Amino acid sequence: MLAGDRLALARLITRVENRMPGVAEIMRSVQPRLGRAHVLGVTGPPGAGKSTLVDRLTARLRAERSSVGVIAVDPSSPFTGGAVLGDRIRMQAHTLDPDVFIRSMATRGSLGGLAAATGDVIKLMDAFGFPWVLIETVGVGQTELDIIRQADTTVVTLVPESGDSVQAMKAGLMEVADIFVVNKADRDGAHALMAELRFSVHLHYSSSVSAKDIDWEIPVLAAQATNDVGVAEILAEVKHHRRALEEAGALGKRRQARRRAELRTLLVEEFAGRVMAAVERDPELVAVIDAVAGGTLDAYSGVERILARLLRQP
Amino acid sequence: MLAGDRLALARLITRVENRMPGVAEIMRSVQPRLGRAHVLGVTGPPGAGKSTLVDRLTARLRAERSSVGVIAVDPSSPFTGGAVLGDRIRMQAHTLDPDVFIRSMATRGSLGGLAAATGDVIKLMDAFGFPWVLIETVGVGQTELDIIRQADTTVVTLVPESGDSVQAMKAGLMEVADIFVVNKADRDGAHALMAELRFSVHLHYSSSVSAKDIDWEIPVLAAQATNDVGVAEILAEVKHHRRALEEAGALGKRRQARRRAELRTLLVEEFAGRVMAAVERDPELVAVIDAVAGGTLDAYSGVERILARLLRQP
């Protein structure tokens, strides 16, 4: 893979995505080659045109002769299962381009599993040599937040139709957004949404600038991604944000914080597996589990007894 | 609370929801009073009219002189943050009824935290004596699945507009649904959606009946919840499902499996907290964390070193 073999990259991604044996070795060996890619996240509610925007951004980056890795993540359960398939179709224009590598990732069973797997796939693409890695997620839920926090720059895409709920989601959006895009900006309500976002952004900026690692007032841009309108401006703003991060020394700090969080998740996952295995080997603890399952013992008391026994051996 | 004091119930729920000290004691003391409530889950995509349906079902149960506990859970991040507020407004008709207790719950920070907290709130309502506990969730994501799995009977609500994505979500929906409701059934496409669901349900039933704990072909019902059309039929079907569960001995088995899963989640959470505390107290392990944060060591190697040190004391 490090020699530029796309097929090898695809195979490694599959290994990592399915958490197959050897993941630790793979990630260890790519570690020295990490940190060159800029990771751009695109999120927003369903129907905001995220895939189209990612497609147009990819086309612009290709016009600059950059190669691009794209990860379309769909962490959703039954109710939005169609997104992955749709992404693949929408990105068709680039599937024959050897300098664009597109990968869809869907729900993993385990807690934190998808965010961790996405982080590893980002690293594989980074190590492969893509200067840009684009992550798209259907923007709902904790898992998506964990995914989007792995981006260096995050574009939150809204549409005029999402206007009525912006009020409620504003606080959370301000935390994740580095750039706001109002897509489908030819529709009714686009101007009002932009004005509202600009007002909120400015208030938020004034109140939080001293607490931030960079001096950055979130720009609010209009776009019509399907017609390639406003896409050049978005890319320029992404690059602007990247420079601002670098100049403030914030890019390194953010990546450090991210690696710390990633270590914590992996550690907890690994421990959880070992604890459950230890419990299931011990007949006395199996009896505790059965009592909880049978409803004669509450879960908190069960946990207490299990911990008392497992930790007795100090 | 056990004497029927609603204010005491509300205070206990707040304690449990915020994971304040004393949760274990509270849950221990209500344990002997559990298992009488039937837990009815209502889920589906945003905009399917779940809150209205819950409101109408509550009215019907009240007409039968049953008291009702309602939990509106919104596990979503920034993008759907408006649901909780909306629920409160929609349920206003019942807020003055002393035999209806409505509680909204929103995102918790910790992994698995919201599902666990919801489970505990269900128990408090059960112990308080509500024969019916209704849970409504915005149906997207892993957390919602963990929440809805705590219901004895689950109603999946769809609308004709969700038709185009039913294809993709079908497999997952069949796993959670005990009853399908096509709401807003006066709209275009309702008949087609019902026909499609019935066909899928029947195929699924034929292929999986031997593996199921009850012999139940998921009914597909039409409704217009805003006009109270079809709601009586839904409630009748819920009761029918409950009887089927009881007669097959499946209700007890499902609850056992649920308590087992709940214990596992609590145990893993508790261990995670202790492991992280142990790591942060140990300067050598703090050095490992710093190496991972600094990018000189990969996360998998970091986990390996931490485990080797923590587990050396056997």
**Can you list the strand order of the major beta sheet of chain A?**
3-2-4-1-5-6-7
CATH superfamily of the largest domain in chain A: P-loop containing nucleotide triphosphate hydrolases
Helical coverage of chain A, percent range: 40-55%
- What summary fits the major beta sheet of chain A? 7 strands, parallel
Shape of chain A: globular
Following the backbone from N to C, one meets helices and strands of chain A in this order, namely HHEHEHEHEHEHEHEHHHH
Considering residues with a beta carbon less than 8 A from a beta carbon on another chain, report the largest interface and each chain's count: A-B, 73 and 73 residues
Indicate the proportion of strand residues of chain A. Answer: 5-15%
CATH topology of the largest domain in chain A: Rossmann fold
Number of strands of chain A: 7
Kindly describe this structure.
2 copies of one chain form a homodimer. Chain A has a 7-stranded parallel β-sheet with strand order 3-2-4-1-5-6-7, with helices on both faces. The first copy, chain A, folds into 2 domains: 6-254, P-loop containing nucleotide triphosphate hydrolases (Rossmann fold, 3-Layer(aba) Sandwich); 266-310, no CATH class. Chain A is globular. The first copy, chain A, has 314 residues and is an alpha/beta fold. Helices cover 54% and strands 12% of the residues of chain A.
